[in-house]
Amino acid sequence: MACILILPLAGLQDLEAQNRQTIVARLLPESRTINIQQEIVFHNRSQDTLNSIYLSDWNNAYSGKNTALAKRFGEEFDKSLHLAKNKVRGHTKIISIVDKNFNPIEWERLDSEDIIKTQLNFPVYPGDDFLLKLSYSVKIPSAEFTRYGHEENGDFNLRYWYITPAVYNDDWVLYSNKNLDDLYMDKTNYVVVFNYPGGYSLNTDLDLVESKKIDQLQQAVFTGQKRNDIKLYLEKDNSFETFTNTDLSLITNIASKDLTPEIKTLTADRIIHFIYDHLGTYPHPRLLVTETEYRKTPLYGLNQLPAFLSPFPEEFQYELKLLKATLNNYLENTLFLDTRKDKWIADAIHTYLMIKYIEEFYPDMKLMGKFSDIWLVRSFHLAKMGFNEQYPLLFMLMASKNIDQSLATPKDKLIKFNEKIAGKYKAGLGLVYLENYLGDGSIPEKIKAFYHDYRLQYVSATDLEKNLKEDTPKSIDWFFDEYVSTRHKIDFTIKKVKKNEDSITVTIKNKRRANVPVSLFGVRNDTVLSKYWFENIIGEKTFRIPNNNEKRLVLNYDKIIPEFNQRDNWKSLNGFFSQNRKLKFQFFKDAENPYYNQIFYVPTASYNFYDGIVAGMRLHNKTLTTKPFLYNLIPSYATKEKALVGSGLIAFRNYLDMDNLYLATFSVSGSSYHYAKDLRYSTITPAISLAFRTDDFRSNKRESLTFRFVNVMRQ
After folding, report:
1. Domain containing 74: what range?
2. Are residues 210 and 355 in the same domain?
3. Do residues 163 and 183 make contact, with C-beta atoms less than 8 angstroms apart?
4. Which pLDDT band holds residue 205 (cuts at 50, 70, 90)?
5. Which InterPro entries does this entry report, sorted A to Z (predicted)?
6. Do residues 675 and 714 touch, judged by C-beta distance below 8 A?
7. Domain presence at residue 91
8. Which long-range contacts (CB under 8 A, 24 or more apart) does 594-597 make?
9. What is the pTM of this model?
């Protein structure tokens, strides 16, 4: 019966010059296996003659301790797959692979275990097709490893569950499963006949052709045109809802609490219209958005607190969760990217639109939500920061520690925080930076045009570069040559200013190697009077601007540029004795406020036998992001000796862009206490520390060399 359904559909697909797959599958929940009969028509779209075809079998990545996936888990100190029992692992058992004439095809697995090489019986010439017929069974792994697989309650989250051809692009692009959700596939036309027990509901975004019951089984026939991978979710209790408007049917099980169907419908409708307005129409009638995928890359921040502690309304949290997951799948399903090499393209558009959504619908939302109104909290700079300020803050957490990576770094070479958060945020901030630099409002339209031109097409970074540079009034080579391709930090300062009657001469210094434009603002009483953009500053460069009676000149005043150090961006025009930044004492710790010199204080108390109770005040300058210059002073009073005691540290950390030497720390620490009645000892310890790492930032190997001289003086 299945063959009768498949053959006419497969015949229609022959008109398309692209890959085609026909899959007949049966799910056996008790054994957690799927038996599959599959036909793959591989279309050679290259100019090369091929004698072999590589197949991605990512389900087999769960089969042992030496797969690329198991090694990836080990790098992240996750032993779950390494120690797993065979009954929860996944694997693929291949019964046969034959050609169109049913002649056996030789095949072998590569060392990674999830890539298969087939040796063809005859060559595939440019523009020709080759038919592979496969018979195999897949053992579905437990969902505890990557969230894909079988759940303990009997549900199945199926992704990467079938064998599919690798991509040939001048050479074979062979990627192993590393839990990055980045299987690179050619666009494919599918026919899927899926048989499963009748007690399950099946959710997918493929087009349903027919569904019927055969004995105790439910058989569903689906088709999909110009798709990448197929996701199937089978549940005993259906958790999915469908929100349909004139544009699209959104199928989702994104979790929410105490929200009415009306609110969720309005939220989904707003999100769909926003994406349509800023990107363009979705080429398929349905879009599947799941809680499983959202949890793999959730929104990070205070919204992850339990519901009773969350500072944000439930409606707002649901809206952002749905927006993030919808944008991710919208782009993933329609832009055929090499997602391991060029994922930053989708990340940039994704984060940029997240920023624009907040600007449009929640411009007054604070980073700390309702916590910003609490009396003890509202004085902190963190409480005054807008919601979108989390993006530069979280990116700078990595940049300030010199462990950020370039956007051009392959996805599997990124450290986890950069892959999940910092890299994505840097990419989106780059488009905001570019938009402000050009100043002609063209970036939103260029993004929309890019999506329109490359929707359901193969796309690379070169295509985006061509799109953004078209009809651009200024050169934006710096964006791709510096911002995307390097990890050079952006850091400028105003070296000196000279105020004349009708003009101001300002010298700007580029403290780092990033040759990117920088903005200069003229400010009086918090009002912006002028704004300029300057480019090609290598070392120092002097500019002359009109004198508009500004009181201060400030670099990057709007903080659009993700700059490494904004503390030295100010220069007062009120004379030699005027302050560039005011002094501010704050309790405990805070986010960095570049408008002030922040000194944090924390009361301290300790006890030792000779000094008795030691009460003091810790003074430091530590913020949420790491600073090069650090001090930590604890002047104290010893109640027993009735004398001043304490300790302190002053350190300068120089983060270097050298090959292996990445940090040099120069410090002086000291202390002074009593070791007997009326007898004091003091220490002073100068030190130099050098830290080394390999070129592989993911490596846990670090080396350090420390020189210190400990001086102890006592009475």
Report:
1. 2-238
2. no
3. no
4. very high
5. Peptidase_M4/M1_CTD_sf
6. yes
7. yes
8. 594/559, 594/566, 594/567, 594/569, 594/570, 595/570, 597/567
9. 0.94
